[in-house]
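Colleagues,

Please find the record for the four-part complex below.
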Amino acid sequence: MAIADIVIKNGTIVTSEITYQADVAIQGERIVAIGENLSGAREIDATGKLVTPGAIDVHVHLEMPIGDFVSADSFFTGTQAAAIGGTTAIVDFVETQADETMLTALTARRQKATQAVIDYGFHMTICPTDIGKLDQLPAVYQAGCTSFKLYMAYGLRLDDGQLLQALEAVRNVGGMPVVHAENWEVITSMIQRNLSAGRIEPRWHPRSRPDIMEGEAAGRVIDIATLVGTPLYIFHVSCAEVVARIAKARQDGLPIYGETCPQYLFLTDTAYDETGVQGALPVCSPPLRTPTDQAYLWEALGQNNLQVVSTDHCPFTRAEKATGLQDYSRIPGGVPSIEMRFPALYTFGVKSGHFSVNRWVDICCTTPARLFGFHRKGHIAVGYDADVVIFDPDREVTLSTDTLHEDVDWTPYDGLVMTGWPLMTFSRGEMIVEEGRFVGQPGRGWFVQRRLG
Amino acid sequence: MAIADIVIKNGTIVTSEITYQADVAIQGERIVAIGENLSGAREIDATGKLVTPGAIDVHVHLEMPIGDFVSADSFFTGTQAAAIGGTTAIVDFVETQADETMLTALTARRQKATQAVIDYGFHMTICPTDIGKLDQLPAVYQAGCTSFKLYMAYGLRLDDGQLLQALEAVRNVGGMPVVHAENWEVITSMIQRNLSAGRIEPRWHPRSRPDIMEGEAAGRVIDIATLVGTPLYIFHVSCAEVVARIAKARQDGLPIYGETCPQYLFLTDTAYDETGVQGALPVCSPPLRTPTDQAYLWEALGQNNLQVVSTDHCPFTRAEKATGLQDYSRIPGGVPSIEMRFPALYTFGVKSGHFSVNRWVDICCTTPARLFGFHRKGHIAVGYDADVVIFDPDREVTLSTDTLHEDVDWTPYDGLVMTGWPLMTFSRGEMIVEEGRFVGQPGRGWFVQRRLG
Amino acid sequence: MAIADIVIKNGTIVTSEITYQADVAIQGERIVAIGENLSGAREIDATGKLVTPGAIDVHVHLEMPIGDFVSADSFFTGTQAAAIGGTTAIVDFVETQADETMLTALTARRQKATQAVIDYGFHMTICPTDIGKLDQLPAVYQAGCTSFKLYMAYGLRLDDGQLLQALEAVRNVGGMPVVHAENWEVITSMIQRNLSAGRIEPRWHPRSRPDIMEGEAAGRVIDIATLVGTPLYIFHVSCAEVVARIAKARQDGLPIYGETCPQYLFLTDTAYDETGVQGALPVCSPPLRTPTDQAYLWEALGQNNLQVVSTDHCPFTRAEKATGLQDYSRIPGGVPSIEMRFPALYTFGVKSGHFSVNRWVDICCTTPARLFGFHRKGHIAVGYDADVVIFDPDREVTLSTDTLHEDVDWTPYDGLVMTGWPLMTFSRGEMIVEEGRFVGQPGRGWFVQRRLG
Amino acid sequence: MAIADIVIKNGTIVTSEITYQADVAIQGERIVAIGENLSGAREIDATGKLVTPGAIDVHVHLEMPIGDFVSADSFFTGTQAAAIGGTTAIVDFVETQADETMLTALTARRQKATQAVIDYGFHMTICPTDIGKLDQLPAVYQAGCTSFKLYMAYGLRLDDGQLLQALEAVRNVGGMPVVHAENWEVITSMIQRNLSAGRIEPRWHPRSRPDIMEGEAAGRVIDIATLVGTPLYIFHVSCAEVVARIAKARQDGLPIYGETCPQYLFLTDTAYDETGVQGALPVCSPPLRTPTDQAYLWEALGQNNLQVVSTDHCPFTRAEKATGLQDYSRIPGGVPSIEMRFPALYTFGVKSGHFSVNRWVDICCTTPARLFGFHRKGHIAVGYDADVVIFDPDREVTLSTDTLHEDVDWTPYDGLVMTGWPLMTFSRGEMIVEEGRFVGQPGRGWFVQRRLG
């Protein structure tokens, strides 16, 4: 074996399964050896540190036009923040206009991402106007999009017949459908009633989107997926009602998966009771829920009834949020968390005893890689991309807009103290974060040709 | 106590709970005494016979315009057949046109029923165009309609937001919502695909309405009812998928009820494989299912996971059925069973050992009376309407269009042998069926002012 | 019809199913008519009162030798108190000595009961020494004992192999096995350890009999009963752990039944923390549990996951209780409640909204009669024994040793206020309680030839 | 890095999680590197072969005295056969006599094992006579026995109070209790009855040990373990009744684990219907079950409701088996499978589509290592023991006493064709099997100091 470019020495390797001591040798972009006493042109001492796979965030919205606004983080600022937090790959979204093909839309969206600093992919959204274009799915899958976003809410909502057709088409290409599950008809009915009655403040947001109607929608799409015979991945599970339905399906042997997000693990719906823009900031959908729901989500992560934590990172500025103060349904939805997810799950998942350090890696790195076709990421193993984090389990970081690098003027986690933070992040063999500072180049990230199975 | 008009002597009284020997005294329209050695102006010997409450059929369609056709039985012929089969009260349906009030529609529908020979009520259908008229529900309830029909399928389909509003309005008047639960969007998508592919025969009917999509719809409306906080009654449960959801809800303590119908207990989906009109005759929705589903339905009746058997009696002629042979989705849906239900449940429910004779009375008489506000029917008890059946447990009747009195030129039960059949039927103290012949007058039936609680 | 001896006029008849107005005519020992405007030699006005079946208590221990003591109430005092509380039939226990036959033991025990003022039966206990006598069961059943008591605890404990044999023998005669379910080996191990460690006070009693070990034993005997193919009735269910197992079995379609008792519905385990004899008084087995368990028990009664409330009435005096203050395991176990059960379930079951007035009658009268072969009791119906209670739903009674008639110097319910109390109790046509005073004769009660099916 | 002793080149590494191409370098007894293009003093080409961890069999009985017999395989012959089948570590059993200490017994048993050719450990059996010696458990754990065998059947049966104490003691040392769960009292009662009735043939064996009584015992010990707060591992799960109870417990979040064995996956209870010794050969306990149970077991392995497949290897000769032909309860129980387990699970688990190749490694290698404290085995990872199998996925082997190396004159798998078989087995860096032949030395196996957590 030739001398490696880089060897990370004396660290504690943490995979989704085991924890052990060994050196990691990187040559070019890949891990080429794991062993004892490895030598490299550059040797980095990781004594007392954890060496983990780079985290993967399969649910982000960067530079995403939503209504009148565009989500605040660019592909550059967003991926930079992600990298500092230990994330080395993301999946964002493409939406196809009625008069273009999916591949055209993908190409256009890829253009937007050229300044990304870590690797990325896109979920192809299947809009109602795409139902006539389902024969394009094989080409989309071939182009590296293995996952397909289906909305049960908002203007992009598919009705159940369209869901059926979309799920069949995704099944036929062997892809993974991902779904936003809420009962849109009930929600719009409740919003309309609230607004008509002058109930316009943010605290009416959660009261318009009951947990059981998120559960209902999840149950419904699970039923349709069962009819079709396809796996299914449910986005941003916020409450016990959905967990129960996923758990039941899995117990029945069905390939159903669910993710939750930091906002549902760390925040609760009393946040909407704040006055002024403060109550508007944490508006996201599904909404924040109760402490009881939180407890269920943590337990579900430990018991594998939820499989992944991603972020649904979709920041809007305070000013943008404030535009909805006269009508909560017009507040642009979404919160930032692209940077804090991986360390936050360590601090509050592992150190608080909800799950093991291996389960942490599984939730944040290995399982998202596997479900979403990053076949060379998500592991510390020979032949895999050298997407590696050297994680300092003792480093203390207090979250604030000062310490975070997201391009938005607020954070819902202000003052939250992390115990454990990435020291270095490697992306395909290149150290791009060092001591918490981004040291890479804009645009070094690549579009990943994902594939499943 | 004065001498009663009629005393049924020496019979075996069967209630939903107990079986015992006693005489039943009738004065005018009511039962005035149950006792030993009672005397009456007319004494009828019921030695060796069962004395049961008149059966109640809460799901019939008489003279019902559906598409281009009208269901074959008139209120006269339909109720006459019902009475011969031991049924003394029915609930039919009212639908309100966009430009009329519900009360107007009720009045008009009541006009249609003037020739009925037994008592009747109407479920008030809440059509999409009625969502703006929900403030009329208190008046409708006051007018004696305690139950409200909600469609999740067909042109009258309410979307989920409308369902929410309708269920809330029904809850507010203390009424009982009854629902046709199927996932219409999925079904129409499947029908369209089948027709486009030239799959037009009746055997594609069940293949367009999968059991799991009936289960899904039932689960969905249970969820919405739970959100609203209302009881709910699910019509014509055809399969295990729905039973499972009702059973789960009841186990959670929710007031959810379900009925099945003879067609689902006695027929299976292989019936659609017949060629020509024969395969079209049993088209109904939900469709006939598998023998396994049948087994679940019988078991659910025994275990109180289903509470009622009604008929969904809605006959169309062979000629009418044949009009859909080039497009199964245009076959008018529905089968006749208004006459055979009560004895058939005795023969195949009680004698076959699925449940006790008391459970038979509960399923066919007592529970439908209780859930649908026939507060003076459904029991053999003092003060109740003298709706009474003298049932001969040994009488053998072979079903056919000759032996049945329904006004339609076919029956799905041709050749089925009943062991047990009503000898006499009393409606409000009047003997209207004697030895299997109708001996009453057209139009003697009354509209019942139903009330709950 | 001849003029009846007694007519209870104008009352509101409450059965397990319906509530209605009618007169009840009694001739000799039986109900001979229910009707309007009945006349009798004696007419009793029950306007504004409930007319219910006499309550049945299928679990009492009168004059029962247990260890060094005999339970405090004699058959006279115990049944007198029962009658005042509206109970008109009880089931007590027989135990057979090693050297006698079951019938001999039954005869002897019947001798003890000659002063009873209401009707009675006996569960035949199957002791370990009776395993060789199982061929006597047909004779015992013929002699009117349709139920058989099996202990999984105490000296009379059957091991699981003996349980199997006993259950088979009971199945073969068509009887009902009733079981005390606790894991005796675990309990004795825990008691021994506590005593060895000097933990001798009553508060160690519940800590020696964990709820999950009551659940385990219930689950075990349900499994053995399932293997054998027999129904099963579980005594004195105290906790959610047992309810869950019964509910699961019933959901699986198994004929498993459970009762709870007033002590588990009204008292909790903090009672054992009292000092001195006060903490010893409520010692019973299974022990009192937590408020959460209480909530489950009430809910289970409402949902029919428990079917009966009986008392396990087994009073010991304060002095007798005090003998175990140096060793909680020697405190004679049992509490009194034979008098208060029926009204207490009305006040705290019906008025508090846990269940309907009909369910109250079902739980206290109708279902115990049905399960235990009182084929002429438990209903207000023609031909049934005239065991009738005229219940004043407004009468207020504050429980205390002064107001109660049990022959024991304490009550666990001191100060508990009943709203609703029996005004008159009839036993086989004879008014034996009038305005809360016993007006019958000692010894008027009869041994009942019970039969099932 | 120095030149390694051995490098396995170009193989496909299969772990419990991923499958990838890399070379494995072995230095001395350990894996020192995994990488690309590694060089070693000896290089072995594994192109087209799978490189897996050595399999671990946590349930074997070698040279085990049972009644009048000793199980047929010695530690030499048994471990040799194991090694040829790809197994590199086993766990056998120690039993302590009443008059000796556990450590003495362990020492004596270790003496028996000196000829073993692979590494081994022992479960310390806690016999009834050991209940007084539970204070020896810390020393036993320190001596490397992290697991403790508890019998609910046979002469070594602990009653439930003893189970409680034993489980508490195991919990206190942080060990893993393993349990034989059957209801012994019911079984002995049924055996006795069968023998008394002259039902002596092997086919009465399964009829004496009903599946629900295995389920009951599993449920019982799960309940006691839950009370105690300890993990629990259930041996030789044979049927759906036990799977259901484990699945329920795991769904409730309890740390309950179960194994099944090849006999339950490949054989069914009709085997006992054979005449003569043929019907006696497959006698083992729990007995073989139905094809339906088999289907549940395979499904449970795929869904992680069972975690491990071990063998319960315990061979007796045809002559020994024949001694029980006049009394099936005296047939020495046990079947051989120590050699075929790992390849059989590949052929019928992976190739038949029940689970993935990674799940195969998990079930046979990784999870048993983790649960039983082989902290340096069960993985292909740096620093772990070089217990490695080069597995030829295409090699066909037909099982027979000729092809197998177990020291017993029959196999229940005669004629079964394996597709896939180990080519080479390495134990701590030493190649001990080459081309299906054992090439190591007797006695080279070591007792393993196991530790958990």
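Chain B has 14 helices and 21 strands.

Comments are welcome before we finalize the supplementary table.
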